[in-house]
Q: What sequence folds into this?
């Protein structure tokens, strides 16, 4: 019988050794290159911005590189923040806050408030004597209702294509204007009906105390109410904070260790206390002359007000929109002697 067994053949030595060889990749030297950015002006910036928005990867890199304002100053579009700087108006109404407030009647452009003009009397009478008799009389205080309104006109493009922040800021600014107009109206009424405080100067704390004490007496005698509020101009606010005693210690400013405790005025707040009165700084008052300070019994004056309203009109012929912001208000002078005005002449 013949032998048919096939002998095993060992793999070639070259194949085995090749399998064991560890190949190490060569490390290439680092080469830094700068590609010239084709964005060199606003036109090229616009072109590549459009291409980038359509998916062009190269344009995306060019636009990203152009965002480096160090090397491409002036090519980056100016961003606008949502915050708005406003140093000319706010919603404060210090004069309205210094009087009482009420809800405006729902109809009519005038309304009336009954007022006692003659009160009954009582007197000592002898036995069988005639009692004192004084008939009570009443009259009506007539109050006019005024409309306070402002208007803004802008294009349909601004209406349709602007940020919602525009409308929020528009309403806020019109509210500020409304607050200024209504507060000024109350200040005008206080000046028109208030008692003339006589010739005054405000160079010492004693003179300030004289003004406050004279006002308190006058208001109580004429209204049987109390002087509780004082509105001052920004200039007089500064004068009051600057008053010092003989040792140069502030009289009315709030300090950590108060020596005089005549007030709590600070440069960081437009509200404070002056000799027991609630002080408010009113920009409707100005200077240091006549009517730059008014002391008030709030029950003697009442501000009646409606809710604020708005209306909108489209001007088709001009492609514009008009927006009105308005409300109704009335200041009732119930007792004119309830205000006492600082006067210098």
A:
């Amino acid at each position: 019988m013949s032998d048919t067994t096939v002998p095993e053949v060992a793999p070639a030595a070259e194949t085995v050794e090749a399998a064991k060889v560890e190949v190490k990749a060569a490390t290439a030297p680092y080469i830094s290159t700068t590609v010239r950015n084709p964005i060199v002006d606003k036109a090229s910036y616009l072109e590549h911005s459009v291409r980038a928005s359509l998916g062009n990867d190269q344009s995306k890199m060019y636009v990203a590189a152009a965002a480096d304002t160090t090397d491409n100053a002036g090519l980056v579009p100016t961003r606008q923040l949502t915050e708005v700087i406003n140093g000319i108006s706010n919603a404060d109404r210090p004069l309205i806050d210094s009087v009482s407030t009420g809800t405006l009647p729902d109809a009519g452009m005038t309304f009336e408030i009954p007022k006692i003009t003659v009160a009954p009397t009582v007197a000592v009478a002898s036995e069988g004597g005639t009692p004192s008799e004084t008939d009570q009389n009443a009259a009506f205080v007539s109050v006019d209702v005024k409309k306070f309104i402002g208007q803004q006109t802008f294009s349909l493009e601004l209406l349709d294509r602007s940020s919602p922040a525009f409308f929020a800021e528009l309403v806020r600014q019109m509210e500020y204007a409304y607050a200024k107009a209504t507060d000024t109206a109350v200040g005008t009424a206080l000046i028109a009906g208030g008692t003339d405080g006589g010739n005054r100067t405000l160079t010492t704390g004693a003179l300030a105390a004289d003004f406050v004490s004279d006002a308190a007496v006058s208001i109580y005698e004429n209204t049987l109410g109390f002087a509780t509020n004082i509105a001052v101009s920004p200039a007089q606010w500064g004068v009051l904070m600057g008053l010092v005693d003989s040792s140069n210690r502030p009289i009315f400013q709030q300090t950590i260790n108060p020596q005089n405790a005549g007030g709590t005025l600070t440069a960081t707040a437009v509200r404070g206390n002056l000799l027991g009165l609630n002080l408010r700084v009113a920009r409707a008052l100005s200077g240091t002359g006549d009517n730059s300070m008014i002391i008030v019994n709030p029950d003697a004056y009442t501000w009646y007000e409606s809710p604020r309203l708005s209306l909108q009109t489209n001007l088709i012929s001009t492609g514009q929109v008009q927006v009105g912001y308005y409300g109704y208000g009335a200041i009732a002078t119930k007792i004119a002697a309830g205000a006492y005005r600082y006067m210098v002449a």
